Amino acid sequence: MSKIERFDMQRRVVSHMVTTSWQNIPHVSYLYEPDITTFYHEYKELTKERKKEGPQISFNTIMLRVIVEGLKSAPQLNAAISYHHKKVEGSLKIQDDINISIPWLLPDGRMITPVLLKAQTKTLNELSDAISELGEKIQNTNIDELLYRAAQDDTLAAIKRCQLGVLRRIIAAQISIHRVKGLTGKEKSEYYKIPEDKRLTARNLLSGTVTVSNIGSLYKDQKGSFGLLEIIPPQVFVIGLGAVQEKPGVYIDDKGEKTIGIRKVLPMCLAFDHRAVDFSAIVPFLKTTDQIFLKPCRIRNW
């Protein structure tokens, strides 16, 4: 017998955001497959050395730092777009801080995208600590209440930007027989006694400037790659990391000669909003990351 599963608050938020993305944003996607053999070896050596010194650095953490370095070279990708289709007017606000939205799998199978704030200011250790801190905050967070308040804040921000179409969303939410409500009464009072620095707030979801999704961390043995990802407005850039894979490739050996061998490759999908930038905007990003993967000794100074 068939069963109907109504969208919960998390599914409602996700469905609304991705629908808005595909309806309004002309996506351009580029599949980037860098050879990270040398980089990966350097990373493994670094983790061996750090076993005696302190906490380990995950591959996901070090890749976030690689991406930060790439974004420093390509500031137009770390930006917010404002665009009015009927007036054919738009602007791009280059952001000072690199705030990375990272999809996070919850114990119940749902996903949210908390934000690592000011990633450009953090060392590898600080990035690792910030990720751990997000995990601790998530444990203290009522996810439905968080999403409810974040949706409210997003709606108010849209009204302030004179996006009056959002009024239809407000009216529909009020008259729906499946209306979603926030916490009330004693339950609300008890929840908000938790200090904001101990739980996630709407700011932890709405302040992202770029999104980095790592499917490789969910399934390390998968052999595919992202072909395209949705860009969450007003962001203009999103990155999808696959799992590290072994493939045959041409490389320069110790004798300085070209040879063929088994190489480690990291599939990366880079998608950008074509209203905001052209392909040339990601070239500095690619050049920077190529250099890091080719000569990764710099990671020891991170």
What do these coordinates show?
With 302 residues, the protein is an alpha+beta fold. The protein has helices at residues 9-24, 37-50, 59-73, 124-139, 143-160, 166-175, 185-191, 203-206, 283-294; strands at 27-32, 79-84, 89-94, 100-101, 104-105, 111-112, 115-116, 210-214, 237-241, 245-252, 258-265, 268-273. A 6-stranded mixed sheet has the order 1-12-9-8-4-7. It starts with 8 loop residues before the first helix and ends in an 8-residue tail after the last helix.
Ends distance: 56 Å
Radius of gyration over C-alpha positions, nearest whole angstrom: 21 Å
Helix content: 25-40%
Strand content: 15-25%
Total helical elements:
9
The computed structural class is alpha+beta
Stretches where pLDDT is under 50 for at least 5 consecutive residues are none
Mean pLDDT: 87
Strands side by side in the biggest sheet: 1-12-9-8-4-7
List keywords for this structure.
19% strand; 9 helices; two-stranded antiparallel sheet; alpha+beta; 302 residues
Fold topology:
Layout lengths: L8 H16 L2 E6 L4 H14 L8 H15 L5 E6 L4 E6 L5 E2 L2 E2 L5 E2 L2 E2 L7 H16 L3 H18 L5 H10 L9 H7 L11 H4 L3 E5 L22 E5 L3 E8 L5 E8 L2 E6 L9 H12 L8
Parallel strand pairs: 4-8, 8-9
Antiparallel strand pairs: 1-12, 2-3, 4-7, 5-6, 9-12, 10-11
Helix pairs in contact: 3-4, 3-9
